[in-house]
Inverse folding.
């Protein structure tokens, strides 16, 4: 097995990786925090649908 | 295991698996105090009155059954999204326990992320079941919560930076110095951020409140530490070598 440090430097992170990460954060926001800022009227449904998960993961809620 | 894409796919898989585990904890553990808290909330509001948020009232937008399923689905989706970000951060990290195996690095990283984005906010602003939060303060509470999450991530990043700076020191000295710095930074964050703005309503039983909080913490630990463990299992060459030798033994 190669040394862990060597395998580390071998990982090349492409630029689109940052777009992917931002997408991940946006999805997290929509599930956990959407209160109407991003989606407007349809947010109520989303907000209520994910309601239990938001509470369970400790995110502030009404 | 040298491309970002292979790491990202394993991050998604790890997030999905840890998310399902966390969703099962929610179904079997966290839903118990949630149900108790909803009963307290329902007993409170006179029939027909909308408190701006339908927690199983008469004119509900989403049924209770759908909320249970949706909540579990939400945890799985968050797990996948966090797994993707986790894998990216792992691929970018050049100084995180560089002498350790990929499994140890991933496990330690998952534990650190749990501390930063779950345990620290939980200590400062403990999770509350339905029927506790004041709708008037939700944006303020959200800002405080996100502030603590960011502060926690800065502490983790700072710890690895400090460890790198002290690499000339012996390992016990370095570990002690980093632990002291993390403890000091944590204390500063806990003292600097304002107290939770809401008072707990008198009709919310203390045992329901704390059963919920501990369930929530268990669920967060399952999610974040789980991502670290599963991702580590998926990327460590040692686990693949076992499979190869098993195949060789069979053949």
């Amino acid at each position: 097995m190669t040394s862990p440090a060597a395998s580390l430097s071998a990982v090349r992170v492409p630029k689109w990786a940052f777009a992917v990460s931002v997408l991940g954060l946006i999805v997290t926001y929509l599930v956990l925090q959407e209160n109407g800022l991003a989606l407007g009227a349809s947010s109520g449904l989303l907000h209520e649908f994910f309601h239990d998960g938001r509470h369970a993961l400790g995110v502030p809620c009404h | 295991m040298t491309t970002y894409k292979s790491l990202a796919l394993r991050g998604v898989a790890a997030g999905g698996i840890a998310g399902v585990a966390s969703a099962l904890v929610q179904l079997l553990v966290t839903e118990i105090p949630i149900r108790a808290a909803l009963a307290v909330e329902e007993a409170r509001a006179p029939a027909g009155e909308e408190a701006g948020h339908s927690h199983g009232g008469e004119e509900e937008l989403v049924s209770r059954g759908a909320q249970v399923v949706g909540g579990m689905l939400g945890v799985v989706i968050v797990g996948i999204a966090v797994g993707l970000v986790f894998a990216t951060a792992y691929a970018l990290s050049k100084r995180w326990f560089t002498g350790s195996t990929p499994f140890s690095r991933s496990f330690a990283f998952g534990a650190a992320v749990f501390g930063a984005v779950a345990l620290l906010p939980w200590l400062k602003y403990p999770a509350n079941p339905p029927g506790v939060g004041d709708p008037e303060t939700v944006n303020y509470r959200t800002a405080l919560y996100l502030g603590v999450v960011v502060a926690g991530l800065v502490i983790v990043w700072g710890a690895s930076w400090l460890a790198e700076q002290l690499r000339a020191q012996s390992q016990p000295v370095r570990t002690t110095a980093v632990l002291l710095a993390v403890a000091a930074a944590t204390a500063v964050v806990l003292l600097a951020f304002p107290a939770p703005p809401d008072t707990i309503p008198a009709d919310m039983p203390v045992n329901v409140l704390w059963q919920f909080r501990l369930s929530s913490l268990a669920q967060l630990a399952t999610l974040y530490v789980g991502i670290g463990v599963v991702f580590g299992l998926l990327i460590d060459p040692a686990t693949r070598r076992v499979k190869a030798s098993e195949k060789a033994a069979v053949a």
In short: Chain A has one domain: 17-62.
